[in-house]
């Protein structure tokens, strides 16, 4: 074997070993080589493939379960001195909260802290979306329970916030029904920088003193907030 052939063989053997190491050790090692930004990018991309990925929703017995997830246009800001970081990205999400289909597109911010030799998401992989879905589910529960104080709190705490419900035919119907169920079949969510647009497909099921009820509809909702706390800004129904 001539020297050049020997060098080529050695090169390909080394490349093969590196490839095998990458497969065995996975993206974490490759991320470490790229610095904090690369490590966090790798973590986000790993989350896209994680199965199952279930996001706890405050106030809900069911988690938000991912069916599809994609982080795009990711920007990572790192503070090495404080050992914290934040990733801002456009997120395309589809999943389910129990029997409710959830589809979302928009801005997400994921905070990280450096802990025990690795970056860890402080509030989970989808903190903004989780906060929005928590508010939507809290509203659904409050409508079903005819809980006016809770509805007023969800509308920003204004004492008259729930008064406008009297103009909604669905609210009048709910008040007549026993038993009653306010179900949501789908939430389609669009996250902007300072507001959240939601299209809700709902179903009201139960009985009034006069008749059984099974009605479907779609409504638009507007939430505003600071990325972690939201309220319904244009009515509850």
Q: What's this, in brief?
A:
The protein is α+β, with helices and mostly antiparallel strands. The protein has helices at residues 3-25, 27-33, 35-49, 127-145, 148-154, 169-176, and strands at 54-55, 64-79, 84-97, 100-115, 118-121, 180-191, 195-207, 212-225, 230-232. The chain has a single domain (51-237), classed as Nuclear Transport Factor 2, Chain: A (Roll).
What labels describe this entry?
alpha+beta; 6 helices; Nuclear Transport Factor 2, Chain: A; nine-stranded mixed sheet; elongated; disordered N terminus; 237 residues
Describe the structure in your own words.
- The protein has helices spanning 3-25, 27-33, 35-49, 127-145, 148-154, 169-176; strands spanning 54-55, 64-79, 84-97, 100-115, 118-121, 180-191, 195-207, 212-225, 230-232.
- The chain has one domain: Roll (Nuclear Transport Factor 2, Chain: A), CATH 3.10.450.
- It starts with a helix and ends in a 5-residue tail after the last strand.
- α2 packs antiparallel against α3 (35-49) and α4 (127-145) packs antiparallel against α5 (148-154).
- Strands 1, 2, 3, 4, 5, 6, 7, 8 and 9 form a nine-stranded mixed sheet that branches.
- It is an alpha+beta fold and 237 residues long.
């Amino acid at each position: 074997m001539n020297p050049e052939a020997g060098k080529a063989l050695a090169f390909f053997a080394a490349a093969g070993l590196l490839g095998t190491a990458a497969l065995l050790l996975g993206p974490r090692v490759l991320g470490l080589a790229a610095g904090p930004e690369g490590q966090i990018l790798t973590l986000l991309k790993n989350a896209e493939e994680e199965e199952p990925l279930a996001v706890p929703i405050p106030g809900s017995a069911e988690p938000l379960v991912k069916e599809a997830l994609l982080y795009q246009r990711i920007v990572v800001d790192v503070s090495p001195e404080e050992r914290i970081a934040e990733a801002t990205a456009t997120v395309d999400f589809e999943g389910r909260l129990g029997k409710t289909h959830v589809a979302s597109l928009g801005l997400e911010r994921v905070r990280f802290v450096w802990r025990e030799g690795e970056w860890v998401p402080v509030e989970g992989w989808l903190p903004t979306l989780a906060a929005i879905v928590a508010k939507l589910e809290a509203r659904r529960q409050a409508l079903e329970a005819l809980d006016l104080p809770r509805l007023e709190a969800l509308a920003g705490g204004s004492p008259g916030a729930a008064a406008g419900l009297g103009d909604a035919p669905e609210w009048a119907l709910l008040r007549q029904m026993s038993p009653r169920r306010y179900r949501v079949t789908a939430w389609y969510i669009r996250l902007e920088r300072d507001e959240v647009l939601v299209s809700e497909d709902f179903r009201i099921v139960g009985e009034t003193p006069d008749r059984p009820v099974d009605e479907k509809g779609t409504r638009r909702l507007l939430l505003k907030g600071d990325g972690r706390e939201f309220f319904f800004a244009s009515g509850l129904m």
